[in-house]
UniProtKB/TrEMBL annotation:
Assigned EC number: 2.8.3.19
GO molecular function ontology, one term from the record: CoA-transferase activity
Protein name in the entry: Acetyl-CoA:oxalate CoA-transferase
One Pfam family, short name: CoA_transf_3
Amino acid sequence: MATTSVGPLAGIRIIEVGVMLAGPYATMLLADLGAEVIKVEPPGGEISRQVGDSYFASLNRNKQSICLDLRSESGRQKLGDLVADSHALLVNMKPSAIRRLGLTYESLRTFNERIVCVAMTGFGLDGGDDPAFDYVIQAATGVAAMTGDPQGPPTLPGYSSADNSTGLAAALGLLAQIVSGRGGQVDVSLRDVMLSQLNYRAAAFLNDGVEPQRHPFGAHSYYVPAQLFSTAEGFLALFITHDAFWAAFAAEAGIEGFPTMAERAARRDEVLAVVSAVLATDTASGWQDRLRPLGIPVSAVRTLPEALAATPEAVIRAGEFDLVGSPIRIEGYEPDYRPAPRLDEHADVIRGASRPAHSS
């Protein structure tokens, strides 16, 4: 199939009033798929420009930039002109700031009845202005409490899981409302997204009163063995979810017994002692090479540099930066990765553009 640089979201125009990570990540994913994304920045630029050039580039490729002072009447009017010719507006700020700057559907519907307004906040548009950064949300929703060694303190992952997850959810909500053909307000909060992602953990507590328990090496609460293991050299992630996997692994490792999932769960400590002893006889990479051909879910623990080196197809070039490309691969479509915009780079083009709203 011939490839094209015309994405599936070509003709969709999205305004982003984004800050730092969650909002910009959501709209970048949409821009990678061909949407026209106009990044509205305050005088002086969006704050993440101050974090570092590569940081900003990693979240803002394929966008246009225009500076507007949304605290002024002229800035709000210029935003209204953009809204009139756009499908959606996405913002991530405190609820009071979103309302004060007129970035809700109720404020913008006078410019365009079919505009989709997505508000990304910590606790919802009606949830108040308490600070809600990624790590705070992980602490507030139980994620930190269930992560880490059982004898150690709560632990946070090494990346912004709440922000990134909320970006994905916001992009989904935005597209869903555009597809519906109706304008309206979409409300996505970091708290709700993280609670949603605790699905089976939350269900176990709500229905059976089972509170999450930490296990050594990040062991799964249901499947055994499914965790990290120390080997003769390095650590190995082994994830045995059903009996066929166990049978193949046990045959290769020379382990007898524990044939059913129920028995392995009931005799967790015994199983883990046997498996740990066997895995200590070879290296992580050795076990990976032995078990993968058998179809067993396994991986040696890699550093990020090692993972990137092993996956060169995931890395793209956008301007002067090497970045991780879009995770969404669509047959026949190859994104045209453009660099993150300079501050106010597209002001003249955007202000001079005139086209009917909803041209798609």
